User: Which sequence fits this backbone?
């Protein structure tokens, strides 16, 4: 490996770590926002727990989503093209991807594009979908390289990802609604309420650990998946890097979004905090195993809304939900445009 390759590797690793840091900063709320909002645990302690379990999830099950992000959206290899289209690839494929991998400049642009918009949203305390931002960045990258040539994209994979983005929050909302009703019914019939409250506190903390594990398993692919395209033999090392970056982001810059999710959508009691977190963990973990990058932001907010709906629609802040939905649309849309334009500019400069 020569000096330029070493420098390129360092830049790409820093870029992937930056996206992971953004995920931790913005998505810490998805794991611990309800517990902090309910006053069960301090933010700092919750963030430390979240960091530990996010690293575990990344190391043990992060490979599924990493492969989807790194190899499942843009077709860069002759073999993949033949498998998808059942015909020989065009000669242009070798011109676009001479090493059958994404160019280093392209990976850098996609990661920075996604990270930039998530940083802005985190600064303003708005939970946005880092998964959608990165997928948008990758899609924009493809547009920047091959233009509007659909044959270079795995369109069915993109359709499945989009479908999962719609299904996931509806699923977690339904789960949370049912779990909350079930738990509150048990509590009405139970005796020794003090003991049950202690148990619920443990369940809320435990479900927060489960959400953190699911976050690591799903979102490490968002942070590091593009690097897997470049370094396919370093999967476990990249997963650990992503997990550590996510944990660092939660500890250093996760407080603002945590308060938005934990306090500003709907008030949460102990059963509500448990129902929201457990429903989110189940939903995100399910899609992680399927290799689908989903939004933990959408998952937890869907779950919190599900809890709020048990008390009527007035218990849910419509204004806050509207602000969050706007962020979900703007972040991936801006990432697509920004990634495509910036890559065209960068490639033009490098070709001179």
Assistant:
């Amino acid at each position: 490996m020569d000096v330029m390759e070493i420098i390129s590797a360092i830049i790409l690793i820093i870029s992937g770590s930056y996206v992971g840091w953004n995920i931790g900063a913005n998505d810490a709320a998805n794991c611990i926002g309800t517990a902090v909002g309910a006053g069960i645990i301090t933010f700092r302690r919750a963030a430390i727990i979240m960091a530990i379990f996010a690293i575990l999830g990344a190391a043990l099950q992060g490979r599924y989503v990493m492969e989807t992000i790194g190899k499942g959206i843009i077709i860069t290899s002759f073999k993949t093209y033949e498998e998808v289209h059942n015909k020989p690839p065009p000669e242009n494929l070798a011109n676009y991807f001479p090493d059958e991998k994404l160019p280093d400049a392209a990976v850098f642009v996609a990661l920075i594009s996604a990270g930039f918009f998530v940083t802005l949203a985190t600064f303003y305390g708005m939970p946005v979908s880092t998964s959608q931002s990165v997928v948008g960045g990758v899609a924009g990258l493809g547009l920047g390289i091959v233009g509007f040539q659909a044959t270079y994209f795995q369109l069915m994979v993109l359709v499945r990802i989009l479908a999962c983005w719609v299904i996931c929050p509806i699923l977690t909302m339904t789960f949370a609604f049912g779990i909350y009703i079930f738990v509150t019914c048990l509590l009405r019939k139970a005796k020794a309420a003090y003991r049950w409250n202690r148990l619920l506190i443990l369940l809320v903390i435990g479900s927060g650990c489960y959400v953190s594990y699911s976050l690591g398993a799903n979102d490490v692919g968002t942070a590091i998946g593009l690097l897997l395209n470049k370094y396919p033999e370093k999967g476990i090392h990249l997963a650990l890097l992503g997990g550590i970056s996510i944990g660092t982001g939660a500890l250093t810059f996760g407080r603002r979004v945590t308060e938005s999710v934990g306090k500003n959508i709907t008030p949460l009691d102990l059963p509500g905090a448990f129902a929201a977190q457990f429903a989110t963990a189940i939903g995100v973990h399910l899609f992680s195993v399927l290799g689908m990058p989903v939004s933990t932001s959408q998952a937890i907010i869907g779950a919190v809304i599900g809890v709020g709906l048990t008390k009527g629609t007035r218990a849910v802040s419509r204004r806050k939900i509207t602000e969050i939905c706007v962020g979900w649309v703007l972040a991936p849309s801006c990432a697509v445009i920004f990634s495509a334009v910036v890559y065209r500019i960068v490639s033009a400069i490098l070709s001179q």
About this structure: Residues 193-230 form the longest helix (38 residues). The mean pLDDT is 80.
